[in-house]
Amino acid sequence: MERIPRPSRLKAAKVDPLDNLGFISKGDTSLLDHKRQEDYFDIIKTRFAALAHISASPDLDNDSLVNALDTLSLSHNAAVKSIESSSLQVPKATSSSSISASAEFFVLIVAMRKLREAIVASRRRDMFARAVYLFIIRTTIMLGHPESYHPALLYLFRCIHPSNALSNEEEFEFVGYLILDVACRLNDLASAFHLRCLYKYRSQSVDTVLSALVHGDWMQYWDARISTSAYERHLMQWADERMAVHALQCLGKSYLAINKTFLERCAGREWKMLRDAKMISWVLDGERVIIKQIKKK
To answer: What CA–CA distance (Å, rounded) separates 145 from 163?
Structure first.
């Protein structure tokens, strides 16, 4: 007589729908199906909306996404760290809420990478592919994750745009992001100006940033942040420390003492931040910063 197996008393483990599907590059071809790609993208947008406390919709409002992510202060030095493809680890956090948020953003970043791989492998260049890439680029710029947005920008202009052209406004927006990323994060000004000529790009805010980087004009650089968008400010963050160090070096060689307010304006940081980051060893005397002590004979 055949033995009937007893039903397990253990509860079935909950499977995250974003984790359920794997990478195309690792042999999982589930996401090659177009309908499954669209359903997967809907889940990503819904999860982002829930995490950022905004309403989910078929077309997630760009301004709402910017404001929500900016409020969460998720820059390249916050909850989401650079996730290397060879070693994917959940970033560490100090509280239970930050742990859950970091883990969720980790899952979403990995899910967006899976979706990008699926679109590339299926050679999809329709309106859906364009919408996915625009969403991924904007979101991961705000999250400070260049491993996601930089290759997405390159694929957008090399493959999707020639087949399914962006609008003039979209092309202007994303070319600006590419130029700023190359100039600020990669510190490759020659390539940035090459892209500017290639796409015949003219923008007062981006041109001001490039001019400041070329001339090492830290005052012009910090002032340029006022006229840039939230996305552009997040891209500029990669050059902030470089410009601050340059400003401090120039001040250190030029002055014996300066006003604290002037120092903070030149470095783009408050005094406490400069001291905590050990960027300077100068002494504060009231509102005056002593750079060099004059030796008495």
So the answer is: 27
